[in-house]
Design goal:
The protein is mostly helical. It has one domain. It is built from 9 helices and no strands. α1 crosses α4, α1 crosses α5 and α4 packs antiparallel against α6. It starts with a helix and ends in a 7-residue tail after the last helix. The relative contact order is 0.13.
Length: about 210
């Protein structure tokens, strides 16, 4: 991958993560907690969501180190919420957590529809960029379902296992390392790839986009 292509993918990643975190903050507000808004996280400004490891170090290593990973991944700074402000704490924690992956799925659908419109208009190069962004959005959607902090699936695990906040905090101390180690296993990357591309091809068929479009 050359530097220009890598930077384009990186900008796509940052944009998609920004919408992802905005969805968390917006949902938290709808569930009764304004913590994210008060801390400036209800924003589409990517700067407020950047995480040094998940948004900078890991994605750039993934892009530019040979053999580091098969595709681009990352995460942003987790959006804070106050459990005690939520109307239905356990349900709302899951809703807030799933809002991020849900936003990525919604963006993927929108990007595939945009690709269909652009393909009909003969804008081939832009179609390719839309599909690239849609693929990345799906990767982020499913990657974030892994039940390890700081990923969103960990909150679903906490609620399902009735894990205390103290136990979750101890688990989260090692979360970054666990995620990085997991990604070294081929089976984890293969499952993530399979579910991503299966969903992408389904969306392409539903939207009528030829699967041979670059």
């Amino acid at each position: 991958m050359d530097i220009a292509d890598g930077l384009i993918q990186y900008l796509m990643l940052v944009s998609l993560l920004t919408f992802h975190e905005f969805a968390h903050a917006w949902t938290a507000g709808k569930c009764g907690d304004d913590t994210a808004r008060l801390q400036g996280r209800l924003s589409l400004n990517p700067v407020v969501h950047i995480d040094p490891i998940g948004t900078v170090m890991l994605p750039l290593l993934t892009l530019f180190l040979p053999g580091a990973a098969r595709f681009l991944i990352g995460w942003a700074k987790p959006v804070p919420f106050n459990y005690h402000n939520l109307g239905n704490p356990q349900r709302d924690e899951v809703l807030i957590a799933m809002a991020g992956p849900g936003m990525n799925l919604l963006l993927a659908v929108a990007l595939v529809v945009a690709a269909r419109v652009l393909e009909a208009a003969g804008a081939g190069q832009v179609v390719g960029l839309c599909l690239q962004a849609a693929t990345l959005s799906l990767v982020l959607c499913f990657f974030n379902l892994i039940p390890v902090p700081p990923l969103d699936g960990s909150h679903v695990l906490r609620v399902a296992a009735n894990m205390s906040f103290e136990a979750y905090a101890q688990f989260a101390r090692f979360g970054f390392l666990i995620v990085i180690v997991l990604l070294q296993f081929g089976i984890v990357r293969q499952v993530l790839s399979n579910v991503t591309y299966s969903t992408l091809f389904l969306l392409l068929r539903l939207a009528g986009v030829p699967t041979g479009v670059p």
